[in-house]
Amino acid sequence: MGKPLMNIQNLAKAAPTGAIEHRPIIDNRVSPARAAILDVLSGFSHWPLWTRLAWLEIAQKYRRSILGPFWITASTAIMTISLGVIYSNLFKTDINEFIPYLSVGLIVWGFIGSIITEAGSVFISAQGYITQIRLPFSLYIYRFVWTRLIIFGHNFVIYLGVIAYFRMPLGPQLLLTIPGLVLFTLNAAFVSTYLGMSSLRFRDVPQIINSLFQIVLFVTPIFWKPEMLGTNSRLVAFNPFFHLIEVVRAPLLGHVPATENYAVVALLTIVNFLIAAFFFVKFRRRITYWI
Amino acid sequence: MAEMQSMVPPPAIALQGVQVNFPIYYGGSRSLKKSILFKSSAGRIARDANHLLIEALRDITLTLEPGDRLALIGANGAGKTTLLRVLAGIYEPTAGNATISGRISPMFDIGLGIDAELSGYENIRLRGLILGLSPREIDVKLAEIGEFTELGDYLHMPVRTYSSGMMLRLTFAASTCFDPEILLMDEWILAGDANFLQKAHNRLKAFVVKASIFVLASHNLDLCSKWCTHGLWMEQGRAKMYGPIDEVIAAYTTTVGG
């Protein structure tokens, strides 16, 4: 076993062109925690790449169609109107109140649901990249969450339509949407980290999540309101998804979310962060091996 | 410029006792069911079922400094590609240390990230981003790359309209568009039709010469001796012989060919 030590001085040396400040240095002796933090930071600094990849992913799906990504909007709109008419009759509620409630609920749910059901593919779908070039692993998370946010933005058009059509009064409560969305984004990033990693290692995970998650849609107040449960309306408090939805849905409908909603979501964020940090610190280096 | 360079450590690679083991997840062993079931049934079966490993690299120690040109030689499955992937920072060693500093240019799949629906120019931009260039750096290079491809107005068309030769021109030009520091090549990248070939050769030569550190894994011993000063003969994940390229090739051919 030789110990190669080479030094040939007469060959032309490369003059580093640009990019000196983000010169990559790979060192597997650094602690996993430090490496994970560096990964998260350098992944973020690749924003021109992940924002581009996110747009491309959406564009790829709707390429050469006239509506483009607004097909997402159109299908959500059609669903809202048809379900709105049926459910408001079914539950004997005022359609003027029910359609805004349902549409905002569906838009918000669209974001949460797509994160959970598609997080499993975050790393699996990036196989080509992961095995060919070293990029921060967090880049794939940013790309995924950004894609979901863009789609959410497209669906938001429905909300604007609802405001205009139902002449909803808008107050300062609307500003509370911002912290709600920040909490959403954080949780989305955390959840997709650990779901993406565990799905890469155990390919049953996405299937398990999908089958369980269908139930969640029905037990979460989107198509119905908590008050419709009558004396049992407090039951929804046990559903974390209810609180999560409320921190964005309530402000969009002109209400202030309950303190309880914020408390549960804050707790949820901390728990998700801890799980994600555990996975990312402990198993980040195994991601390539799990492909 | 000289002052700036002195602040940056020169490109360098140091591997010490590097080991890479690939876990093999065949069919069922990947499933959660197996994992949970075997966790509860303790002992040997669990170990057998969950720890089927391929030892791709064993105890590799290697130091490369600016100016080094190394050829990796060996049969298929000897670990050449895996070693290149370790040098590219794709696989972190399962044991041992790897420190690599410098901008790495992996030339493994030069078509990585190509989007058939995007135009030639947009694909060049995307490729540049993947390679770690900033949008501004790409803008500076864009005209030169476009010119090199000789694709003219086709660069505004979606690349799905390209012939395979045109595609090769594009990916080749985009992949060799910036000065590499650490250049890693899995088999010599050769591009295109006869007209383009000479031009591509010249560009590739210039590209390789500019690289501070160059590592080539190839079965083509002529190319290895032409471009590299040292050789590392690998066998079953181990370094069997290291030395000046001619000596390593001589030893290798007598063993394998003779």
What characteristics describe this protein?
heterodimer, A: about 290 residues, mainly alpha, 12 helices, globular, disordered N terminus, B: about 260 residues, alpha/beta, six-stranded mixed beta sheet, three-stranded antiparallel beta sheet, 10 helices, 9 strands
* Order of the strands making up the biggest sheet of chain B: 5-6-7-3-8-9
- First and last CA, distance of chain B: 52 Å
The two chains with the largest interface, and their residue counts, are: A-B, 54 and 74 residues
Number of DSSP helical runs of chain B: 10
Order of SSEs of chain B, N→C? HEHHEEHEEHHHEHEHEEH
Note the run of SSEs of chain A as H and E: EHHHHHHHHHHHH
Class computed from helices, strands and strand pairing of chain A: mainly alpha
Q: What's the gyration radius of chain B in Å?
A: 21 Å
Mean of residue pLDDT values of chain B: 83
| Oligomeric description of these chains | heterodimer
Helix content of chain B: 40-55%
Provide structural commentary:
The complex is a heterodimer of chains A (291) and B (258). With 291 residues, chain A is mainly alpha-helical. Helices cover 67% and strands 1% of the residues of chain A. Chain A has helices at 32-45, 47-62, 70-90, 95-118, 121-124, 127-132, 138-166, 177-201, 205-219, 240-252, 259-283, 287-290, and one strand at residues 25-27. Chain A has twelve helices and one strand. Mean pLDDT of chain A is 87; it is low at 1-22. Chain A is globular. Chain B is of the alpha/beta class and 258 residues long. Chain B contains ten helices and nine strands. In chain B, helix 5 (120-130) packs across helix 6 and helix 5 (120-130) packs parallel to helix 7. In chain B, strand 8 and strand 9 (238-244) form a beta hairpin. Chain B has helices at residues 2-7, 32-40, 44-50, 80-87, 120-130, 135-149, 164-175, 194-210, 221-227, 245-256; strands spanning 12-23, 53-64, 69-73, 95-101, 104-107, 182-186, 213-217, 230-235, 238-244. In chain B, the strands form two sheets. A six-stranded mixed β-sheet of chain B has the order 5-6-7-3-8-9, with helices on both faces. At the A-B interface, strand 1, helix 2, helix 6 and helix 12 of A face helix 2, strand 2, strand 4, helix 5 and strand 9 of B. Strand 1 (25-27) of chain A pairs antiparallel with strand 4 (95-101) of chain B.
